[in-house]
Amino acid sequence: MSERLFYLPLGGAGEIGMNCYVYGYGTPGDERLIVVDLGVTFPDMDGTPGVDLILPDIAWLEARRDKIEGVFITHAHEDHVGAVGHLYHRLRAPIYARAFTANIARRKLEEYGVVDPAAVQTVSPWPETVQAGPFSVSFVPVSHSIPESAGLAIDTAAGRVVHTGDFKIDLTPVVGEAFDRDLWSEVSKDGVRALMCDSTNVFSHHPGRSELSVGPEIERLMTEAQGMVVATTFASNIARLKTLATAAERAGRSVCLLGRAMRRMVEAAVETGLLTDFPRTVTPEDAQDIPRESLMLLVTGSQGERRAASAQLANGKYLGLEMKEGDTFLFSSKTIPGNERGVIRIMNQMSEKGVQVIDDSSGLYHVSGHANRPDLQAMHEVVRPDCLVPMHGEHRHLTEHVRLAEAGGMRGLLAVNGTMVDLSAEPPRVAEFIETGRTYLDGSVQIGALDGVVRDRIRMALNGHVLVTLIIDEDGTPLGEPWCETMGLAEEGQSRTPLVEVLEADLDQFVGRAAKKTLADDGALEKELRTIVRRTSQNEIGKKPEVTVVISRLA
Amino acid sequence: MSERLFYLPLGGAGEIGMNCYVYGYGTPGDERLIVVDLGVTFPDMDGTPGVDLILPDIAWLEARRDKIEGVFITHAHEDHVGAVGHLYHRLRAPIYARAFTANIARRKLEEYGVVDPAAVQTVSPWPETVQAGPFSVSFVPVSHSIPESAGLAIDTAAGRVVHTGDFKIDLTPVVGEAFDRDLWSEVSKDGVRALMCDSTNVFSHHPGRSELSVGPEIERLMTEAQGMVVATTFASNIARLKTLATAAERAGRSVCLLGRAMRRMVEAAVETGLLTDFPRTVTPEDAQDIPRESLMLLVTGSQGERRAASAQLANGKYLGLEMKEGDTFLFSSKTIPGNERGVIRIMNQMSEKGVQVIDDSSGLYHVSGHANRPDLQAMHEVVRPDCLVPMHGEHRHLTEHVRLAEAGGMRGLLAVNGTMVDLSAEPPRVAEFIETGRTYLDGSVQIGALDGVVRDRIRMALNGHVLVTLIIDEDGTPLGEPWCETMGLAEEGQSRTPLVEVLEADLDQFVGRAAKKTLADDGALEKELRTIVRRTSQNEIGKKPEVTVVISRLA
């Protein structure tokens, strides 16, 4: 049996976020592996109430831990690096990244008590290569909305494949490297078997705009604004932070950073030498003494996150600072679909304070970090792969990206999470399907997405919860009456009597008449009591609650 | 004390949806009242899990039931008419509406068993007036995305005020009346004290487009599509239904309606003579025998609602019909902010089936039913009121609309829900603030938004729920050990022992050592047990659950 090269997305191919891709090389079934990115995605009340973070299910990888040669992180966005801390102890493979990304990854490992300096290795970009078993991997700089983003050139005996990571084509990115077409041409000049390519913006038909273009608009806004200006963007968008801070400085405003992520990212960027001329910042305490019209707060929470600085300022005072009538709040960001409600809540709270809220609807104050459709085509042209495999996108993005590739005369191959693609086959083809999924970080525990815990929470939230307790004495007769407690249910319904009383009366009536046999059988009894609660509740309040029955038998 | 005219929004001013406005005329404190619109808004998992519908809190009105002269419904959208059935028995005032709206309102009352033909009275438009106590009210036709929409000219001894209802300026609305500038000029010619004006689209800077403009694009799409076409839009948008059905017919496709609201709306429009030349439709059963390329399904669920026809088709077969590769799904609608997740879910499910999904991002297949900024200005110009009071919008929309009015040289007055405005004062001014809120229809019961029921559901969803039962015998000593059940919590945490066992061990240890006094005091005991559960859970799984304690004392 000859050796093969495969590609296997475990996360990111069929969703935006939670990127995690595997490449394998070797005899089928015994391949050596590398992992590209270990990202997270974020929970929401609709589907994952109470969950803290969503991680890729790495059971498949964990079972092959001894085969993993390394984990390569393309850039420091949470959906690419966010899971390294949470999953490191399950994989224990060395992590490779460029300096800034490595700095962020190390901070995440430290939170989990991992201080081994060899855990994260800093790699210089192309032409430096990391030898990882049969893989030779190079970080190819690419422009994106965070510094030191990189695509990967992955070489094996089966030839070269290229993994773009997230990217845009930006010739003037403010911070970090401009897109270098010559470099990408050089990487691709001897032929590329397959290009695994970012797909998030495939439905954006206009060419992408450069980070540089937002500077003058932001500066004008900061200059014309009368009161205090508060601006929010993703903390990791170092270029934007610089643009905002520089504009503030030119407009005669002191800059104050609010929010842990904001301070952390600026710190990392300074430590790694990426931010050399960031304006001097003032502390929140000092900011209180600065006239409003000479102040700009740079805050976390562009997605309306409830505990972030923006939400705190919308609610009231935060660290002694407060927004007032005549101030301006700028969303220098795009609202990620699904986060609209939180963002709109903040907008309206600001509006109630008399604050002028400016969002991106004008297109002046934000540009995307991802390649739009024409830029994807440009990337296809530069790399000219034998086969295009779209990644990082929902199903509709991947499908559309395949169509785009095929329209350009290229071979396109759709591979959603769990699809193992044999890249060394001629042409590349699906080899098999692996079971994949999501793991929830829930409090301090990792639980499976399908193990029912979150499903039960959703059920309680939708239906309410009734508890029934019944004590049965030594000779099998009920001791007293069944007792009910309700949570999340209306206190009374159609009979204008407390629901709990109606339930207890119905349960008591049943228990009083129940056969000895039923009373002796926990399972049967529990089922009957549950049915009565659900039926009575339906009659009284029109809802069928979740029911927990506790039968205590005196011995 | 002289008489006065007031305006009091109870819903809709500070939100999009749930419209409910009150006008009062008479001696202060003893005014006669009319109500304009009784709408609903829709629950979501974030803030109102398990709730069926959100209604305005009409406690203030209910307490003054004998003063209400009538309820005037401007048009048949759910956010204006949706609460009439649920609230009729609490107000028992006659409902006035134009024929189509009255038809819909009657259907809603019938669902609540109200069959009194006098409950809903059909009113012809301007110049006909309804005399309602001191009010003389006229329905002034206006274009919107549902037939027979009307503004109201409301006359009292204090002069005329105008309430726009929802509107757009459409000269070719396909179904229903075109915007009639001359009519609105006539209504306004003797002076208008105040204009209560729709605000939802105040941030849309381009002039609105006519319903007529989408027809040719939709027809082209229906003609060019290869397989079956499935189109969704709001069922109440009769003009769009007609456009879609007519386009289908011209493209040689039979039309099949799916979804209860869709059939109901078409029925009402036919009954009231608004739809005279709607293409003949086929039943879902007959549709199964029609070749896919000769079929168009017109379905409910444009907002991704889980139980609507669109979601059912995305999941699999629905009434024997199924989407397949090569079919086309058209969202002839806009996604309302907050509904993105549901809509995107459907898009991806369709994509997985190989269905081409077309949404409104191109702007070709949908136009808004509300007046954009330039159209609002046009309305201001036609009516030229002494004062502009923005309604129907979030706080940010109302504020911006005041700014727009003031920029146009008009007086603007911000009045959010609960703000009673004395319109007869010179100039109009805020008279007082009334407590307002929301009522939840929860199953078959109406509950208050702030009574804690839904808050408890959210807490269970976020934190999980632990039940503790403890039996204490006649002499005050625990009988057996405390018993725990968990719902919505991880099965085990850091000690790798089932959480329930760890909890029970800790509780048992406490109970074994507890003082007689504590064991005798239900309150103290419950508090201690709850604290232990929360502390142990925090240690084990990093979460502090909701806890219900049931102490049973044997007598």
UniProtKB/TrEMBL annotation, chains A, B:
The source's domain of life comes to Bacteria
Q: Give start and end of each Metallo-beta-lactamase domain.
A: 17-206
SMART domains linked to this entry: Lactamase_B (SM00849)
Q: Name one GO molecular function term.
A: exonuclease activity
Question: Which PROSITE patterns would you find in this protein's record?
Answer: UPF0036
Record-linked InterPro entries: Metallo-B-lactamas (IPR001279), RibonucZ/Hydroxyglut_hydro (IPR036866), RMMBL (IPR011108), RNase_J_2 (IPR042173), RNase_J_b_CASP (IPR055132), RNase_J_C (IPR041636), RNase_J_CS (IPR001587)
Q: Per UniProt, what is one Pfam family of this protein?
A: Lactamase_B
Tell me the keywords, alphabetical order: Exonuclease, Hydrolase, Metal-binding, Nuclease, RNA-binding, Zinc
Record's protein name:
Ribonuclease J
